[in-house]
Amino acid sequence: MRKRRFSVEQIVAPLEHYDRPANLFVAGFIGSPSMNFLKGRLQGGRFISENGTSLPVASAPAASDGKPVIYGVRPEHFILDEANGLPAEVAVVEPTGSETQVFAKFGGADVVGVFRERVDAQPGQQIRVTPDPRLVRLFDEQTGKRL
């Protein structure tokens, strides 16, 4: 009989997994829909995605300029912001009753946003969103650990 090996990724209270995941695995495993991940680097206290989109971060680790990172934002942490948001090209709008899920291209990546507001957009149209920088999580691109 083969022995199975299991790995414990993080031992904390349940909501800690959601709020402060230790690594990419935990961040992607907890929550539905799961956390969105964008690849890029930190520069001047901001995140710059692979396609050059500049996104806010609440605080960048010291001496992190140029560091390759993964920018993690949960679907419900996007904010509809027609005045100051960045464009997201809508692929699918899925009303679920009290929420609306929007599948879109944002910052060069496919993302899912979950909004309490009604979203009146059709595939191919753009909405303007911004991630809440206080709730964004940064992960080291090589190790997957939260910074």
Distance between the termini: 40 Å
Tally of helical segments:
2
* Element pattern in H and E: HHEEEEEEEEEE
Tell me the number of strands.
10
Task: Output the CATH homologous superfamily.
Answer: Nucleic acid-binding proteins
* Molecular shape: globular
Biggest sheet character: 5 strands, antiparallel
Assess the beta-strand content as a share of residues. 35-45%
- Give the low-confidence spans: none
Overall tally of structural domains: 1
CATH class membership: Mainly Beta
Domain MalK-like OB fold: 31-78
Protein name: ATPase component of ABC-type sugar transporter
Pfam family, one: TOBE
Keywords: Sugar transport, Transport
Write the layout of secondary structure elements.
Elements: H1 14-19, H2 24-29, E1 36-43, E2 46-49, E3 54-56, E4 68-73, E5 78-80, E6 86-95, E7 100-106, E8 109-115, E9 126-131, E10 137-140
Antiparallel strand pairs: 1-2, 1-4, 2-3, 4-10, 5-9, 6-7, 6-9, 7-8
Domain Transport-associated OB type: 84-134
Organism: Microvirga lotononidis
Pfam families: OB_MalK (PF17912), TOBE (PF03459)
3D structure, described in words:
It is a single chain. The termini are far apart. The protein is globular. The model has no long low-confidence stretch (mean pLDDT 92). 23% of the residues are buried. The protein has 147 residues and is mainly beta. It contains 2 helices and 10 strands, in the order ααββββββββββ. It has one domain: Nucleic acid-binding proteins (OB fold (Dihydrolipoamide Acetyltransferase, E2P), Beta Barrel), CATH 2.40.50. The strands form 2 sheets. The protein has a 5-stranded antiparallel sheet with strand order 3-2-1-4-10. A 5-stranded antiparallel sheet has the order 5-9-6-7-8, with no helix packed on it.
